[in-house]
Amino acid sequence: MSAFVEALKRTSQILKRNQPFQVVTHGDVDGVAAGALAHTAFDCEVIIQKRLKLKNWTTLNLPCSWIWEVLS
Amino acid sequence: MNDIKKGFHRYFVVDHHPSREYGSNVLNPWMYNIDGTRYLCTAATLYLVVKQLDETFQKLSYLGLVGALGDKQPLEKENGELLQDAVDAGILEDNTLFGKYNLQQFVDTVNACCRNSKKELAMEVCLLRKYHEGEKELQEYRETFQRDLDYLTRMWDTVEKENRGRIGCYIYDTRITKKYAGELATVLARTYEKPVIILVKDAEGIKISGRATPTLVKGGIHLGKAFQGCGGGHDIAAGAFLESGDMIETFIQIVDQRLHYMVAPVTVRLDIPVKNALQVMKALSIDNIGYKNVKVTAEHGHIKGTVTGTPGTVKNITDDIIACIISAVQMMEGE
């Protein structure tokens, strides 16, 4: 099994174990599609942001946060 | 990444932008030598993750395809797996999604919602809801985009004059619709075969979108690296942000200097000790057909030579020559 497939499996288990979580994603097509995918697969809340705003995020006091599409 | 580490106790990042470092709480195709810029976007990567959990998630492959096409990626190599999954799941046939949406039109609709700052609507469209509302955004987007593109095309001579002597074309014009800057830069870069960097002012500062072309990238251009310090991204598409308009001149100066170094011709000298250098050279001469500005000879147990060109080309040719030498040596050892 390739290292990438192992990483996919490991990540899927991390996601499964750590529900519920919130997703913070970038507001472009790829970011929104990723958000929709996460929402469907994990029923998580998705926060779409124009660009990284950590000051706002930290006030959310999230139990567990998943972030992608930091900048594009 | 440092800001994320400081801001969160628990986090995980799924991303596809190349970076100098990643870390343990990150999944990025680049960590596994997969070209995330061209063959696996974030949505596609996440699809491959959820697919590990349950085969029924195969029907979500369309979202990975939407992300890939949104990032102008070809549906081949790693993306090819998603395409096959979509066909196998029966959700994609003749470029039509779920029997009623044309795949590219669907992507354009999501894109228009994003560009028009209707991100929640974009999400709804992705979830196969409110598609007709999304179509209205697409119509508005197309009209405004075309108006802006026509304007910039008319202005192109002036833009070129203003950017004379620079590698990139920098456009700072308040008449451009801010949210379309990235898309406009894409079309202009392809039309004029130049790195195009559009700067727009928004409420928070100066937003910058840079776009190049595959040919420019092959020649050494890497916009993500050029923007380092106030932004980043891919070789072909990158973004940056300045807090104040006073920083624009400095930004242009630094970025263009970096771009200059990326494409300025360089010469690499090769001097590799090789057993049976003359015989190895015979094998090399076959593989060297088609290379220009390359001189390689065998001298006293060494293969010596020079390769001249843009850094990207020189790197590729040098890599090829070294690979040929290794393969020729291995072949002779085998004999």
Overview of the molecule:
The complex is a heterodimer of chains A (72) and B (335). In chain A, strands 2-1-3 form a 3-stranded parallel beta sheet, with helices on one face. Residues 55-72 of chain A have low confidence and may be disordered. Helix content of chain A is 47%, strand content 19%. Chain A has 3 helices and 3 strands, in the order αβαβαβ. The longest helix of chain A is centred in the first third of the chain and has 15 residues, at 3-17. Chain B is of the alpha+beta class. In chain B, the strands form 4 sheets. A 5-stranded mixed beta sheet of chain B has the order 6-7-8-10-9. In chain B, helix 2 runs antiparallel to helix 3. Chains A and B meet through helix 1, helix 2, helix 3 and strand 3 of A and helix 1, strand 1, helix 2, helix 3 and helix 5 of B. Strand 3 of chain A pairs parallel with strand 1 (11-14) of chain B, so a sheet runs across the interface.
SS-derived structural category of chain B: alpha+beta
Q: Low-confidence parts of chain B, pLDDT < 50 over ≥5 residues?
A: none
Q: Care to count the β-strands of chain A?
A: 3
Oligomer: heterodimer
Q: What is the average of the pLDDT values of chain B?
A: 91
Strand order of the largest sheet of chain B: 6-7-8-10-9
Our measurement of the CA-to-CA distance between the termini of chain A, rounded to an integer number of angstroms, reads 31 Å
How are the secondary structure elements laid out?
The complex is a heterodimer of chains A (72) and B (335).
Chain A: H1 3-17, E1 22-26, H2 29-42, E2 45-49, H3 54-58, E3 65-68
Parallel strand pairs in A: 1-2, 1-3
Chain B: H1 2-7, E1 11-14, E2 26-27, H2 42-51, H3 61-70, H4 78-88, E3 92-93, E4 96-97, E5 101-102, H5 103-115, H6 119-126, H7 131-154, H8 156-162, E6 169-172, H9 181-192, E7 196-202, E8 205-211, H10 214-218, H11 223-226, E9 231-233, E10 237-242, H12 248-263, E11 266-273, H13 277-287, E12 294-299, E13 302-309, H14 311-334
Parallel strand pairs in B: 1-2, 6-7
Antiparallel strand pairs in B: 3-4, 4-5, 7-8, 8-10, 9-10, 11-13, 12-13
